[in-house]
Amino acid sequence: MSERKLRFGVLGCAGIAKRAVIPGIQQSELCEAAAIASRDEEKAKLTAEQVGIPVAYGSYEALLADETIDAVYIPLPNHLHKEWTIKAAEAGKHVLCEKPAALDAAETEEMVAACAKAGVTYAEAFMYRHHPRYAMIREIIDSGEIGQIRGIHGAFTFNGAANQGNVRFAQWMGGGSIYDVGVYPLSAARLILGREPEAVTVNAFFSPEHDHVDMMASGLVEFSDSVALTFDCGMWAAGRNTLEILGTDGIIEVPSAYVSPLNASSNFFVTVKGERREVEVPQVNQYALQADDFARSVFYGEPQKFDPQDSIKNMRVVDACLKSARERVRVII
């Protein structure tokens, strides 16, 4: 293809970058992974060789100084998102930042403002929302087939508790299950309902063995019209990755709702009047779709599917959930 590609630099060698996002960029139509940086130059070189990236840098600053790089993907620990988003924006780079956007909504507002001031595109890397099945789910809901929505339940859990050195278990780095996996059902409910919640109540298990981060959390998120999301998220529990939408006349069940293994089915199920059917969904790389949506905004000025304000709104919900869990109170948003 002769069309120009958006040249991405990757700040950091995180597992999610190597396992999913870099391959997604490489498989996209409009992007390429052109460079990677680490504070350990040998690690950067090794990772670059492993994933097929041509250039490796021994510092993030060196990558930002590379004038051939158009955009950066930031998969750094959560507490570094604000710093490096702002530095990237000031260097004239467009920014695709891993979720959660930052440690709180105030930090996210600073990041979004810095990108707007620099005239660069900003996006939060919620890849699942770019999968076509969510548009399909919305069409089914809008058709009235499952009736009025009465409730949503989302779950995202895994058991990684034995890995004591994981940055997810460091409080000062923004560790905890709400930040890491709870953001998925929270954002999914907002996406499906098309509005913001009014209040949250969350109960969490803060583990002394893991720097007192929330290793498990369960919550109630209240929306208007007496509709609620119930969710649970955890890093010390058996694995689940599901979403259920309950209507007056039917149910939509989404297995592998947020993370779908490549070459695995992304189909979902609809049950109406006792009849359950499987809805076939195209097999796509949602990371590649995310990259291309980002590139179309950069190259052609097309509106992003999810604008930067969405990151701020989602972090307001995360802030409320964490406050509720820590103080054991209902929090009005």
From TrEMBL:
InterPro entries: Gfo/Idh/MocA-like_OxRdtase_N, Gfo/Idh/MocA_domain, GFO_IDH_MocA-like_dom, NAD(P)-bd_dom_sf. The keyword Oxidoreductase applies. Residues 134-253 form the GFO/IDH/MocA-like oxidoreductase domain. GO terms for molecular function: nucleotide binding; oxidoreductase activity. Residues 6-124 form the Gfo/Idh/MocA-like oxidoreductase N-terminal domain. Keywords: Oxidoreductase. The keyword Oxidoreductase applies. Belongs to the Gfo/Idh/MocA family. PANTHER family: OXIDOREDUCTASES, TRANS-1,2-DIHYDROBENZENE-1,2-DIOL DEHYDROGENASE. This is Gfo/Idh/MocA family oxidoreductase. It comes from Paenibacillus thalictri.
